[in-house]
Amino acid sequence: MGEADLTGRTKKLTTVSYGVLGLIGLRPHTPYELAQQFKRSGTFWASAESVVYNEPKALVAHGLATAAAETNGGRRRTRYSITRAGRRELRRWLSDAAAEPQFQFDAMMKVLFSDLGDKDDLLGAIEATRAWADRTQAGAAMITHDYATGDEPYPDRAHIVGLTQAYRVGLAQMTRQWADWAEEQVRDWPDTHSGPTPAELLTRLGEGRTPW
After folding, report:
1. Which residues lie across from 72 on neighbouring strands?
2. Distance between CA atoms of residues 73 and 69, nearest Å
């Protein structure tokens, strides 16, 4: 069974929905706190901040969360908590077969169609890819530092965080290696409309080996 469509009158739950449900399953959160956690760990669940802010309301409509108003320093805010039905749905989702990742990478799309532009455009896309890798690496370093120094937001989860951040660091390093290699290749091209026939490269890739 795929992502839940629990009633005909409420919004279908998405991966972002389950990310929010998982966070409030750890402890109650305000929408601001949820948005901060999505920003902090965005490699796996990148989403517009407005979507994260609105998602808890959908969970309440499904009966998976409750909302409680509170006042802090004269400012009113809403804190969301998971319900028993929410925990059951979270367990169902966790046991369900994982969906294929939906990976939208604007810079890499620009590389794909760079022969319709110019060389500077391509080099700019490569640099943007490198910058994303560096930001991703820095984000993982921040999270792992917090857990290593006892400043973690969710105690007793270091073993889980280690698994996810190991993937994140590996992804960042691979992307940085690709960007450095790609820039070296493109620097020697006269333009993006013509270039050397990469017979050796294609053979290497076909064998599952990277060129760097």
Report:
1. 75
2. 13
Residues contacting 114, CB < 8 A, separation 6+:
121, 122, 125, 192
Q: CB–CB of 13/5 below 8 Å?
A: yes
> Distance (Å, rounded) from C-alpha 177 to C-alpha 120?
20
Alpha carbon of residue 18 to chain centroid: 13
DSSP at 116:
G
Taking residue 86's Cβ as centre, other Cβ atoms within 10 Å add up to: 22
pTM of this prediction? 0.84
Q: State the alpha helices, DSSP H only, in the chain.
A: 15-26, 31-40, 42-45, 49-61, 84-95, 106-112, 119-148, 158-187, 199-206
Residue 98 DSSP class = P
Q: Is residue 47 within 8 Å of residue 28, measured between CB atoms?
A: no
Residue 8: strand pairing partners = none
In eight-state DSSP terms, residue 3 is S
Three-state DSSP at 132 gives helix
Q: Which is nearest to 171 in space by CA: 43, 78, 79?
A: 43
Tens-digit pLDDT profile for residues 143-183: 999 999 988 889 899 999 999 999 999 999 999 999 999 99
Residue whose structure tokens are 């367990």:
91
4 vs 12: CA distance, rounded Å: 6
* 4-58 tens-digit pLDDT: 555 444 678 999 999 999 999 999 999 999 999 998 887 888 788 999 999 999 9
